[in-house]
Amino acid sequence: MIALHAVAAKTALALPETTCSQPFGEGCDVFKVMDKVFMLSFHLEGKATINLKVLPDNGTMLKDIYPFIRAGWHMNKQHWISVFTDEELEEELLQDLVLNSYELVVSKLNKGQRQRIELLRSV
Questions:
Q1: Are 105 and 15 within 8 A, CB to CB?
Q2: Which InterPro entries would you find in this protein's record (predicted)?
């Protein structure tokens, strides 16, 4: 079984302009790009869990396919999913979900912020 929090954090922190803080106290890491949240990392029901932003249709599809993906805990259920640690969860899927959440948030940033991120990616 993969280490959900470690893999998700490593994936997120490798992306340009990503920061991690604990505004809600210890036990909940909040990952942001340009001050916009794209991932939360915490424990729920005794399991390592992350919340990720998704397009509504993608979130519905993911919840239908994977039993370890549910509606986002304490978030807008249409735009967020919760991913729980599970033997079936593959590292590649987790990395893709984190990247997709990041990209979704980046797509909503202003033009200058998006250009800065593109420049940092090309370095």
A1: no
A2: YjbR, YjbR-like_sf, YjbR/MT2646/Rv2570-like
Q: Is residue 121 part of a domain?
A: no
Whether the per-residue pLDDT at 1 is higher than 80: the answer is: no
CATH at 29: 3.90.1150.30
3-state secondary structure 53-118: ECCHHHHHHHHHHCCCEEECCCCCCCCEEEEECCCCCCHHHHHHHHHHHHHHHHCCCCHHHHHHHH
Give the tens place of pLDDT for each residue, 33-77.
Answer: 999 999 999 999 889 999 999 999 999 999 999 999 999 988 988
- Tell me, what's the pLDDT at 45? 84
